[in-house]
Each structure stands twice: as C-alpha cells, then as structure tokens.
Amino acid sequence: MRVTDAEFVQGFIRLCSDGYAQGWHERNGGNLSYRIRESELSTLRPRLRTDGVWQSIGTAVPGLSGEAFLVSGSGKFMRNVALDPEACLAIIELDPAGENYRLLWGLRDGGKPTSELPTHLMNHEVKKRATNGRHRVIYHAHTPNLIALTFVLPLKDEVFTRELWEMATECPVVFPDGIGVVGWMVPGGREIAVETSRLMERYDAVVWAHHGLFCSGESFDLCFGLMHTIEKSAEILVKVLSVRSDRLQTIRPQDFRALAADFRLSLPERFLYEKESKCAERLAWRGRVKAGCMAEYRRRHAELWPEMAEVLWAAGIRNYSIFASGEELFGYYECERGVAYAEKVQAESPVVKRWNAYMQDILELRMDPETGAQPKLTQVFRLD
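and the corresponding structure tokens:
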C-alpha cells in the first residue's frame, strides 16, 4: 500500500482541502499535525525511510517518546496538499528523549516540518495526557471572523466564550469547557507555545489574537468541526455587531443552565454571568499590607487560584481591581447579582476561607464581625 492510500493520510489531505476551501489558508498560512497510531504506522513501515538524520525539535516532549506524526511542511501551500501530498507533507518520528525528530517520509523536494512544530508537539503532549490519549489532531488556521473579533472584544476567555456561545445554540454543546485566548505573540516562538499549552490543559480551542485559532480533537472530523463551529459563530457575531451594537434578545444565563441540564453538560459558572454591569451594585474596601510584603502580595494575586476566581464569578463579582499606595490598599468591584448576594457567597465559601487564611500573614485587615468581610466604604459621589 502506498503511504498516500492510508486512511489517516487521506483524512489529513481532506482537512487541508476543506480548510483552504473555507478561506482559512491564504498563501502558505496554517498548519496541521496528527499523532499516528502504531497500528497505522506498522502497515507503512516498508515504505518509510530508516536513514533520516536526527534534528532538534527545539523543545523537549518526553511524553511523546518514540511517537510518529504526520505534519504539514513549512512554507507549503494547503491548496497543493491534495495535488502532491508527498511534496507537502512529512511523517516524522521522535527519539526516545522526545528532543529530536527524523524524517520517515515526505518533503520529497526538500524542506522542513511546519515552523510551529514545537508548539504542535508541546500541545500534543498536553492533550495526550489530559485526554488519556484520545486526542490525536492539532490544527491551526487563520479564521477571518474570529481574528476580526480579537480587535474589538476584550482578550479574555470569559468574554470570547460567552459571546460565541450566544451566537449559536450548538456552541456550548460543541465546546462546553469554553475557549481560551492568548494575546498577540510571535507565531512559532516558545512564548506562544508555552502559553497555548497552559490553556490547552482546560480547553480544546485557543484563540491567537490577531492571528487565528488553534484546536485539538480526537479525529480530523471532530477537530475541523470544532474550528468550523467557532468560526461560524464568530461570523454571526460580526454580522450582529455590524447591524447594531446592542441586542434586543439573546441566550441568557438561565437558558444556558436549562440547556446544560437537558444535554447533561457541565458549563462553568464563570461564563454564565449577567452582562448588564451598568446596573450592578458597587462595593469598595480598604486594607493594608504588612511592611515589606507588597511584592509577595502582588505575586500571590498574579497566581490567583482558579477555584478562587470561580467563586468570585459565581458570586456575580465583575471588574474587580485592587490599587496600592505605598502599603495602603483600595479594592473595588461591581456586584451584578447585588452586594448582599456577593457577600453571602463569599462568606459561605470554604475556598474564600482558605484564601483569607493564606493571605493573613501579609495583610492587616479589620474585618466586619457580622459579614466576615472588609468594612464597606461609603459612596459619596458617582458620575455615570
């Protein structure tokens, strides 16, 4: 059997063609990789090279030791993959340390695997671990409507997830865990690879601001379907925003919760916030950092526990900011479900209790004995 006749190679070729047909691969844009099953590789062994020179990946992925991948070539055109796959694609094999690769097949006319190979492999390693080996496809494309939104929406996971979920009922079913967002970084560099890998621990799709979308999936169909759904939702949102900036009706948090119940989904509460923050109640507090502890205070907040952030979102807390003047602190946030509700959720949360205990050694706070929270400041002026 020829290499190009293998079912996984045919699936790879089809995805490249489908992506180009969608307009996602101008010139030589975008890339694709597939982690090959040993059963698939064994049938092709007689057709593969065994004398390839080992070359550095540029990173270490020990979790992919000895694995083989089908990848698109650097500088190759997605529109040409179907015409001449052996010139545009490569099958590579990693060494036992996961630090080097060698060519087994493809790139007949010369060249290298995709310039974003380190990013692909680092994320394959993450998704292999996170999904117990189920995910095998990593796909990056330049989805125009989603790219357009990265210029006008806040670059936050919560905002992109919620906005895209609202545009099509299927969205929370297709990507119930949400979607991650990376601010603009140099493509192909280590920084974007590391940040994307971090987000891929919890998401199957990550937006690259002003550049495109990065998706992972179990199969070519599921990975392409995920990207297609996200981009279609982005297209609808672009059209909605072009008609008017506000919406007369939308899918509300309670609607998402009903959908989740019917489809037996678990939708993170931090995506189900009330969006009319202009009507939110406001709360301000003040405190003091112990002498010499400001650097440690900043560090701990830069590494805020994800479960603590979840509690704050569930409490309806938005636009939370803390300012410092010397060792004096001033905190401000908006309570979309009311101050009383926000205080109740925090007072009953074991996570908040653990966080307060964690911060106790560096803070001087006079807590309200009734609420267990910082005393609220009195508002004396407001300009809307």
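(Above: one complete record from the training split.) The mean pLDDT is 93.
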